[in-house]
Amino acid sequence: MATYQETTAEFAQLCAQQGGTWNNINPEYAARMRLQNRFLTGLDIARYTAGIMRADMAAYDADTAQYTQSLGCWHGFIGQQKLIAIKKHHGTTSKRYLYLSGWMIAALRSEFGPLPDQSMHEKTTVPALIEELYTFLRQADARELNHLFRELQTARDAGDQVAEKRLLDAINNFETHVVPIIADIDAGFGNEEATYLLAKKMIEAGACAIQVENQVSDAKQCGHQDGKVTVPHEDFLSKINAIRYAFLELGVPDGVIVARTDSLGAGLTQKIPVSREPGDLASQYNAFLETEEVRSADDVNEGDVVIKKDGKLVRPVRLPNGLYRFKAGTGEARVILDCITSLQHGADLLWIETEKPHVGQIGAMVDEIRRQVPDAKLVYNNSPSFNWTLSFRQQVFDAWQGEGRDLSAYERDALMKAEYDTTELAQEADQWIQAFQSEASAKAGIFHHLITLPTYHTAALSTDNLARGYFGEAGMLAYVEGVQRKEIREGIACVKHQDMAGSNMGDDHKEYFSGEQALKAGGKDNTMNQFG
């Protein structure tokens, strides 16, 4: 990317070629505006972030400590503030992504109002949120660079060459807030053509990674709810193909496909695939069906479906709704086959939806997958649907029980009680939770850790805290003490909300366009000046 000085020189040359008609255009101002808008299209973003993800995947393969993380964001502002916070606290956005959660789109962004995570929301909302997130991230770039440009001008006006060089270096080495988004396309919102069309819109909006799941599209359920129905491998692979074609058509060959399997918690299938030869994918899928042997025509009822399996006629168990049931206890085997098949047919990463965060359970499945696909790696949902406190206290309890330790002070089913919070068991459980991501990345092949809907919960919690005080005895102190004073003390840039919304950038642009006659908002009477 061209430097500040190179971009300024480029515009100076261009202006000089206009025969004086561009004398009112300041080449340095034009350079600033160009650098503040590095990504001109969503496809520019998708290509750039796909390269980041591919490099991060290679880094993880070399060192499992190099795992990546993200938080789900339901609004562009939330995503923007997350990336600003990451840069402030950690100095870099490296290995940090955004996650776009279908659950949060359904719950918070549908025109129908709040909906369950069952693919009932408008599918156009998905690319719209991707575009919104990147609009806010690009604005974060523009705002931060604008501050650097102002500081640069101040240093020049003061003749401080040391500060000027430092600021030019900061501008030329500026790290963008634009990071990869892993975007949830649910089960594709229809057939493979519908999946392809929606994938194109998502990629055009900036998505470099698309997560697709193997549930039936019109019967999709949240991965942590009951009633999940999976599709045969051939149906799922057609959607993986559709997404790959969309990436290739749009010139994003490095695009990443995350194949999610819900088979661990799904006990049903909608249809029986056609097997063409023994041992093919359809045959392997059908082997998991719960069946009853058919010995004669008398064993068959009107409308029953009968198939031949292992040389025998069998009747798959069909429910009153027409769905077929899998054998109990086959979930993990189906997950392993799903994952191997997906990776062998074009997927890049896996997502195994589990019922609890257990490194041993996840790692055992990954070990089996890696027997056939050695570099298999996961995106994993550190889900708020898990009761993390109870789960890990019970895991510690079980580990201690295996060691023969005295557990008479603990009741396993009641370990969530606050009375256990200060116990040795609870403290060790918290240490296990703290180490979960690093442990799971080292022992269970997890490349990317995400929390699907954390900002749904943080918005609810912070609003509850404010409402309790503001509408109670604390009154205005609830806001001042609980919000504004903390913003000031903790250096939250949003305390100057006018600046965050673009007021200073607007003033500078007015000056670029109108010179001394510009009417600015940031003068001495702007109350934002009270925050220093």
Automatic annotation (TrEMBL):
Substrate binds at residues 101-103, 223-224, 260, 381-385, 452. Can also use Mn(2+) ion. The active site is at residue 222. Its cofactor is Mg(2+). InterPro entries: ICL/PEPM (IPR039556), Isocitrate_lyase (IPR006254), Pyrv/PenolPyrv_kinase-like_dom (IPR015813), Pyrv_kinase-like_dom_sf (IPR040442). GO terms for biological process: carboxylic acid metabolic process. GO terms for molecular function: isocitrate lyase activity; metal ion binding. This is Isocitrate lyase. It comes from Chromatocurvus halotolerans.
